[in-house]
Amino acid sequence: MKVTQTLMTASVVALVAGGALAEDMTIVSWGGAYSSSQQNAYHDPYMAANPDVNIINDESSAEAVAKLRAMNEAGNVTWDVVDVVAADAMRLCDEGLAMEIDADTQLAPAPDGTSATEDFGELLVSECFIPQIVYSTTFGYRTDMVGDTPPTSVCAIFDTDAYPGRRSLEKRPINNMEWALLCDGVAKEDVYDVLETEEGQSQAFAKLDTIKDDVIWWSAGADTPQLLADGEVVMGSTYNGRLFALIEEQKQPVAMLWDAQVFDLDGWIIPAGLSEERQARALDYIYFATDTQRLADQAKYISYGPARTSSAPLVGMHAELGIDMAPHMPTDPENAKNTFLYNYEWWADYRDDLDAKFQAWLSQ
Amino acid sequence: MSDATDTGPVLAADGTPLKRSLNRALRREKMRALMLIAPLLIFVLVTFIAPIADMLFRSVENNIVEDTLPRTVVALKNWDRTTGELPDETVFAALAEDLVIAVESKTHTRLGSRLNYEMTGISSLFRKTGRSVKRWDIATDGPFREKFIEVDDGWADIEMWATLQTYSSRYTSGYFLNSVDLQLSPEGITAREEDQRIYITLFKRTIFMSLTIMFSCVLLGYPIAWLLANLPAKTSNMLLILVLLPFWTSLLVRTSAWKVLLQQQGVINDVLVWVGLVDNGNRLIMINNQFGTIVAMTHILLPFMILPLYSVMQTIPETYLRAAKSLGATNWTAFWRVYFPQSVPGIGAGCILVFILSIGYYITPELVGGTKGVFISNRIAYHISSSLNWGLGAALGTILLAAVLILYWAYDKIVGIDNVKLG
User: Fold this and answer.
1) Within an 8 Å CB–CB cutoff, is residue B241 touching chain A?
2) Which residue of B has its CA nearest to A63?
3) Which of B196, B263, B388 sits opposite A357 (nearest CB)?
4) pTM higher than the cut 0.95
5) What is the predicted pLDDT for the residue at A116?
6) Helices (H), B315-422
7) Which of A73, A155, A299, B54 has the highest Cβ tally under 10 A?
8) Region B103-123: what's the mean pLDDT?
């Protein structure tokens, strides 16, 4: 009896002690170069400062919304912090799958005392979303396939006379519809008003029709870089960080076309329904990982712009290549002369409808 | 003993009728057998049958509307949309009451996303209204009709109310109608607008391409299986490893390899241009279309055809062919009349495997299919993981499952499922 009791006490103590030694925290992100930039800028310093936390990486961000919904229905949420794009954060918030964040009390203020709400500004697009980076979907083109007149305008994708060859575009309506209207003479501020109408949608499809046979449609972010590297396409859209890697790391004859780049946001959410203890831990991590210095640190490893205004002046050199990162940021004034801000609210409404139409149009 | 038969039923040693005693013993046997397979049975039920059944059930389930807006649904029952007038104040008051509760549990936005599948704009209508409703006091703030319309004039849209009314029942045929390019509108069942019809095309294409892939697998796999079965053991083992090798390579790597081979600046086109068969300006387009999907998927699924064929062919004695020829048959007759009929069970097994696998494939078509080479499963994957329209995804999946079962039944009727052999 005595022995059993001692053993049991010992094991309970061991369990508690073991638990206190290293608490696992599952952080979900996109994998690849992006996750390693987070590992370097956030996870490693955080674990060094908090030896009792052990961060586990999960690369499921692409299916995060569906998986979180399934976890929530099963009543067993195994993720603590999830990296998602703003549109997904908004849907998770709508579905009640992400917890609401009060930026001023739960996020770090800027070093000069500016509140987090002000520092992030209008990038706080949803109550549940903690912005991390600004990335853009933009174009890259083969410098050896465009002759002496490299494209300067996004409308070059619709100009098959001046730039013959195939182009790659994403296999979804988002961004493509906007670019089509912009290049069909619609003013930037009217794009969504026009796209709301049947005529506007037909107009966008008609414009896309002009290049339909010249387009390779991509669904993975790595497609366009591969197509450009092989000379399969003359220009193509993808995330600016992928193009940076293609140009600066792999030294391919490709250049950026920043015109009408579409800004989008990526950031964190904390799943709803975590135990208080796990929630507190997740919040503690978020407070650390989204402060001014940490956001600036991430830009050393990948060419995405930090979401805080106060981080911009701190962006330095690339950790391995040793080149100045500021000119490669989508937010750099030189690159951001003509930008387009993706309208989350609008797409939340029109996404289902337009996607059905877009897919039907594609298969015609 | 003989006395007993004369007087009544046969009795066992303990006096109970033999029949009952025997039954009891048999039942015990059956129970024991059941207990033995119970772990597996329960495992299959819990991890396989139940989730599938649950997923299929979502194709008709529509509890969310009545659960979120119980009072509104009741109040809206008496509203007649044909009058062209908005519902009266009782409906708006019920809606206000429902929404206050829904906003607290944050279910109003979820309902908004659900109804947005049926009518564009409802998602933001609920999100926007939810923000205002938080500040309302139900007891004193009425009347609500003007208040709602003030927040968003979407509430003054008859169409919106008609949609809400149409989709207020607990079960709906809407998802199934959607998956065959129809829709459940307030006017009843109507065809979808032409620019949104896609699923029938995709179903047809999926079946057609799966059949094509299946036939090309038979054409390519049959000679290889024949070689495997008839070569000396040493060489055929070597060949078998070559057949199995792709199994040990990642699916994505194999698919990407086809990109490298087939694309316009790819290996095959380069060789053709170099040889002079194709003009440099007119390189062949062999990927991002149906051709690409068929080639890549035939390659990926080929082992599933070769292995059952091989194992069946191994059981066919060589002597039969020799006997046929010694009786005067030509090579072709000997093959066609003697060998081929015996290999049919292997073809049947291979075809079923390849067809059923290809009908549900989506990674390869997504990567090499372009616009014309994608399958219905790509849309199912999209609805499950991207648009979150699980109901529609489930309805499409159910139809696909039913199609497979019907084809399986037809196969059984025509060829006979007993005629299928895996070895």
Assistant:
1) no
2) B385
3) B196
4) no
5) 94
6) 318-326, 331-333, 340-359, 363-368, 376-385, 390-414
7) A299
8) 91
